[in-house]
Specification:
Blueprint: E1 5-6, E2 10-13, H1 20-27, H2 42-59, E3 63-68, E4 74-81, E5 94-99, H3 108-123, E6 128-134, H4 138-146, E7 150-151, E8 156-157, E9 171-178, H5 179-184
Antiparallel strand pairs: 1-2, 2-3, 3-4, 4-5, 6-9, 7-9, 8-9
Bound molecules: coenzyme A.
Coenzyme A binds near residues 97 and 110.
Length: about 190
């Protein structure tokens, strides 16, 4: 059964049919997709939703649809997933987030990501959560740093053939947060 997360301003929940349109729209926004190899088709966006909804139903956690409590409006996703590409630091659970552009600059990603970490460590009893992004994706790295993750100094080439060798998108940095460190930091 889906784990439901309520924070001060956000609700992280199971996906609804009504999320399909706004989720596809944010994946077609060049600003949102600036650090990805390209825009994402409607088919790809619907595929994400199908996969994440099934994971939420089956095991309770995945990438949650996020809405603001004030408006009930869908703003993007935040969550915990197991990466699908083979990475040298697997097995691992990855923290990820993607919000529509009009909802940047309000601290929503940081607030939701902190809550997702809480679920990962408290409820799922994970020993570690990682996150990774192109080195040049500074907004994403800032979220990781604000929530207490540390740069593992283990940059790597993300194995996505759509990212040509030498492209600035291919070189990724890895951030880690251990359960021990999270508990020591007072879980914030
Ligand atoms: C990554 C992403 C979610 C970060 O968004 P963001 O708005 O920078 O991050 P937050 O939601 O945590 O907001 C933090 C900003 O809000 C500001 N802010 C305003 N009100 C705030 C509040 N009440 N509480 C906290 N921060 C607040 C902070 O000062 C900070 O601004 P700054 O970046 O100028 O210092 C966004 O850039 C995105 O969706 N990008 C596209 C997808 C992507 O790249 N995902 C990561 C792939 S690995």
């Amino acid at each position: 059964m889906t784990i439901d997360i309520v924070t001060e301003r956000l609700h992280l929940r199971q996906w609804k049919d009504a999320d399909r349109e706004p989720y596809a729209a944010l994946n077609m926004d060049p600003a949102v997709m600036r650090f990805f190899p390209g825009l994402q088709s409607r088919e790809g966006s619907d595929g994400d939703i199908a996969r994440w909804s099934a994971e939420l139903d089956d095991r309770g956690w995945s990438n949650w649809a996020v809405e603001t409590r004030e408006s009930g409006k869908f703003i993007g996703f935040i969550g915990l997933t197991v990466p699908r590409r083979a990475l040298t630091f697997m097995p691992c659970v990855e923290l990820g987030y993607r919000l529509a552009r009009e909802h940047w600059g309000k601290g929503y990603a940081t607030e939701g990501a902190r809550a997702a970490l809480g679920i990962g460590f408290d409820r799922l009893q994970l020993q570690e959560i990682v996150s990774f992004t192109p080195i040049v994706n500074l907004p994403s790295r800032s979220v990781m740093e604000r929530i207490g993750m540390t740069n593992a100094d283990a940059d790597f080439d993300y194995p996505n053939p759509a990212m040509p060798d030498g492209s600035e998108l291919k070189k990724h940095c890895l951030y880690r947060l251990s359960r021990e460190r999270w508990l020591r930091s007072g879980c914030t």
